[in-house]
Amino acid sequence: MTTRTLAVVSAGLSRPSSTRMLADRLADATAARLRETGDEVEVVTIELRDLASDITNNLLTGFPAPRLAEALETVASADGLVAVTPIFSASYSGLFKSFFDVLEPGAISDLPVLLGATGGTARHSLALDFALRPLFSYLHAAVAPTAVFAATDDWGDADDAAKPLPERIDRAAAEFAEVVRRSTRTAGLRDPFALPAGFDPTGVGGIQ
Amino acid sequence: MQFGIFTVGDVTQDPTTGRTPSEGERIQAILAIAQKAEEVGLDVFALGEHHNPPFIPSSPTTILGYLAAKTERLILSTSTTLITTNDPVKIAEDFATLQHVSGGRSDIMLGRGNTGPVYPWFGQDIRQGIPLAIENYALLHRLWREDVVDWSGKFRTPLQGFTATPRPLDGVPPFVWHGSIRSPEIAEQAAYYGDGFFANNIFWPKEHYMKLIGFYRQRFEHYGHGTAEQAIVGLGGQVFMRKNSQDAIDEFRPYFDVAPVYGHGPSLEEFTAQTPLTVGSPQQVIDRYAAMRDHFGDYQRQLFLMDHAGLPLKTVLEQLDLLGEEVVPVLRKELAKDRPATVPDAPTHESLVAAKRAADGARVTEPAR
């Protein structure tokens, strides 16, 4: 039996927030899928609102305060990441981007990621594919094929009758759980204090 | 144990008066601050290197050469000399000259630099920072130890039959510290050569530096220079003091709040909790820095940043009086307590000459046996 950790990053700003609701639904659905095959799942949720000052301070000073350092470590060492942001002005929120900006380079390489976003109307849903997906491609994450957008209406009566939100969440979670299962990333996590392979402190014949 | 100060050499507006010193005033202030460091009994003055405003130290050995003539005991050093963008040949020449001019009262701290455009301004590529630091130091190391050097590398034009002059004083190169904020490669390099490792320590929580220094100590032992406890470690620090700690906080806060490096970010309280910055009474500074060795092991050099963020010269000189008269004498006693006899002091020119004589003597007498 394998124990897997799912990190959940929610950039919702209000309390309660629909972004957090979507993040929880995605995490729960993924955990359920992983448990079906006998995995133990631990879900650790990070609300970026709680870290907003620390994130700004990290941008200014170059180092994370202890609470933020713990959150960054949670994300970097997780077996999978559910990342959900509200769509502001046609893209992820500034707070969401800033959090990923203060991650160490390479920190989430190969990390399985499930993307989610929320917005007032479904007209914003493509931001998932033109804004979030390129960001995580740049970070070399292993992004699951389906991402989930929840518009305000998705939470009520006017839900998409053909493809309701629960169905979309379940499909995304199933795909993502499979990416997490196949990933061997956490077994090979590199100590940030380890020297690069083949490093020669004299440089003789060893110029990179 | 050596105590001293290091300066970035920034020209910054005093936020309490709105006045910005001229470059000339700032250079004169730095000369006064360094001489004050000797007067109050400190051991080391180290100067940064920058090639862009608002910083003045683009030519460190010019300033250190002047100070060599004006001081008698002070060790003159750098914090740091850019091993990436300076020609290692010029570093070899400049710092061997400084050694002679100062009568052996100089050493050097190498670093990669953190200002991106300096690399292209000096014809280099920032993505090659680590390889530059490795190759340039390999050459510098040879230039000080071999009278005639043949060299070819990736980054500078080859040398055939080159002799760096003057030769190092008494045939002993200046002691080298390697400064690094985050790179295990530089800790490894320092350990490989048996050189010192300096952790600037002022921007990151101590846990980060504990790992980096721990790694350096372990590799120092691996390369056979002594035990991990005998590795040569230097630490940065930052303090502001008044007799009454609340006065120190009230006076320093306006400088802290808008300081170029961390201003408009964390509060003074957060920053002092998370980094070695200590703002308070001399006793608070003593308590904080006497405990540094609990985290990093017994070490050899402690440098304090005292003169940045637009603090006026008068204030900095008052700070140095407090540091030299009330803090350092107590710290010397505290850090000497329970310090194992096997832990060495920081190498000086005298100690390196003595070590060389002992080694040469052993070499001369050996064949006679």
Rounded to the nearest angstrom, the radius of gyration of chain A is: 18 Å
Shape of chain B: globular
**DSSP helix count of chain A?**
6
CATH topology (level 3) name of chain B: TIM Barrel
Helix content of chain B: 40-55%
* Name of the CATH homologous superfamily of chain B: Luciferase-like domain
- The CA-CA distance between the termini of chain B, in Å, is 39 Å
How would you explain this protein's 3D organization?
The complex is a heterodimer of chains A (208) and B (369). Chain A is an alpha/beta fold. Helix content of chain A is 38%, strand content 20%. Chain A contains 6 helices and 7 strands. The longest helix of chain A has 19 residues, at 18-36. Chain A is globular and about 65 Å long. The mean pLDDT of chain A is 93. Chain B is of the alpha/beta class. Chain B has a single domain (2-368), classed as TIM Barrel (Alpha-Beta Barrel), CATH 3.20.20. Chain B has helices at 23-39, 60-70, 88-101, 118-121, 129-145, 184-193, 206-222, 245-257, 268-274, 282-290, 292-296, 313-336, 349-365, and strands spanning 2-7, 44-47, 75-78, 81-82, 108-111, 149-151, 159-162, 176-179, 196-199, 233-241, 278-280, 301-305. Chain B is globular and about 60 Å long. The model of chain B has no long low-confidence stretch (mean pLDDT 95). Chain A binds chain B through residues 56-57, 59-63, 65-66, 69, 193-196, 199-204, 206-208, and chain B through 130-131, 134-135, 138, 153-154, 184-185, 188-189, 191-193, 203-205, 208, 211-212, 215, 261-266, 270-271, 274.
